[in-house]
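B., you asked whether I could sanity-check this one before it goes into the benchmark set. Here's the sequence:
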Amino acid sequence: MRGYGQTDSPQAIDQFTLLHLVGDVIGLLDALGAETAAIAGHDWGAPVAWHAALLRPDRFRAVIGLSVPYRPRGLVRPSTAMPHTDDAIFYQQYFQSPGVAEADLEHDVRASIRSVLLSLGGEAPARSDGVVDNFSMVPREGGLLRRIMRDARDPSPLPGWLTDADIDFYADELRRAGFRGGLNWYRNIDRNWELLSPFTGACVTIPALYVAGERDLVLGFPGARDLIANLSKFVPQLRKTKILADCGHWTQQERPREVNDEMIAFLQSW
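And here's what the prediction gave me:
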């Protein structure tokens, strides 16, 4: 994924659009000599997978989205529809200004990655609707890291799906590469909306599976539950929606066996 790990991370923000990211996956297929593939993605990887399926059904025979459902192009610019209050803004809006979130998250990289992982896991405190949401609204004063470190509990020992070795690895990679590449994805939300104008109303037409945790903060986003309940309208070959009980945002880490079982069953069903 462009901007993560040891992948290329261009400085220019406009090099991280969904068209670039889908193009990267096509480039991977070409490099591997694969005519077609099934594609799976989690979180930001899910929109890449969904749009790979939307834009290139000739190269992808099936799609699996984890956490984030396919969201058809809306009628309004996404940044104008993001929730906000007098005291806080939506985290995706907070990520828009280059350098701001980088300075916040890179101040203490290990604390940042540890807090983000724990604050979105199924063990974190939930709202009254059962969703874990210690992340999505960022105080206008204080930034994201202070918010998640304040709200996330600090379990000892760590939950079974996360180890100190995991955290150390992620922290070392992010100290080297920085957060800019990943954050640049969010800085193309409006640009993606503009570029995908020709696909307004288009459906994902290949076989699909959607898996999410019942406590995932994504399910608490405005309109998310209605979208998921009606996902087959936009993904007519949706074979199954699986909501994992007591699972947070990190589906494949928190519930590896169940996620693998669902993926394998789906891939063997057609």
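One thing to flag: The CA atoms of residues 96 and 187 lie 5 Å apart. Otherwise nothing jumped out at me.
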